[in-house]
Amino acid sequence: MTTMKDIAKVLGLNESTVSRALNNHPYVRPETREQVMEAARRMNYRPNTLARSLATSRSYVVGLVISNIANLFFAEVTKGIEGVADAHGYSVILCDTGRNAAKELKYLDLLARRQVDGIIFMSGRLPADVVAAIKQQRCPVVTVSRDGTRYGIPTVRINNRAEAAKATRYLINLGHRRIGFISGQLDDAESGLPRLEGYRAALEESGIGFDPDIVQEGDFRMESGMRACARIMQSPPRPTAIFAANDEMAIGAMKTLSQLGFKVPADVAVIGFDDTAFATVVTPPLTTVAQPLRMLGTSAMEMLLKLMAGHRLADIETVLECQLVVRASCGGTGL
Known about the structure:
- The structure is a single chain.
- The protein is an alpha/beta fold.
- The chain folds into 3 domains: about 45 residues, lambda repressor-like DNA-binding domains (434 Repressor (Amino-terminal Domain), Orthogonal Bundle); about 130 residues, Rossmann fold (3-Layer(aba) Sandwich); about 140 residues, Response regulator (Rossmann fold), CATH 3.40.50.
- The chain is about 45% helix and about 15% strand.
- The chain is built from 13 helices and 12 strands.
- It has a 6-stranded parallel beta sheet, sandwiched between helices. A 6-stranded mixed beta sheet has the order 7-6-8-9-10-12, sandwiched between helices.
- Helix 1 crosses helix 2.
- The longest helix is centred in the N-terminal third of the chain and has 16 residues.
- The protein is elongated and about 75 Å long.
């Protein structure tokens, strides 16, 4: 079994330097840390977790609280988190809450009792009791796609309002004036309500009236997109475009449109949000707002590593840029 002493000998470093690099100590030069991490991978180094925990008073485990692992958004972000965690010797405990507030509190309590070194939270909303439970944690907590900064909680997110407005403007620039919208849960102040606000703002700045009859609330699942689309298409005059607040609901809308005898994009253009794997395999391929899903995860885990190492953050909020990916579902070829 490869030891830190073996790595130190190969690299001509002190064993203490190798130890600090492997444990993400702040006083190790980045190039030295990378050299050590590469040697550890090459030599198939596996840390003795129990010995390391006893020596450092750390568990080398982080908790991840999410809403729904079956949703590809969460699956992709989780991959980003796990990749960085594994590279730094951390294991990840995954807690799937089903967006249930009682489960969120239960899992936060469980992670505290398991004495994890840090927590990444990206489940549901942030009501007062969940915020209180997060603030009571003895370990650092980072939120993803939640507005944690208003409570002083470090956060990695996108600007949902601005990105939804960008997608709506694209449809307007293609000539659409009757644009239906399928939102996420409107009690979600981070990705539900702001995407509706962005849609509405883009309409208003173009002089297009907001019509609540062609706005329906979904729950980010495909079935809700199907139901919402059916209701929207009953409102005369029928929309010529539909913007759904995530890819799953957009694909659900496309299925309903097909069942109703409408062709996409000849009769109705459809645009989604997230750019999950679903977007490229449906017919026609889905135009969508591409979130940097893996980067959301890697950025959050890197932020958590800094906090667990005792570093101060220059900024507790990281806002990542999205990109509108144009495919065939809108019939357009550019922005």
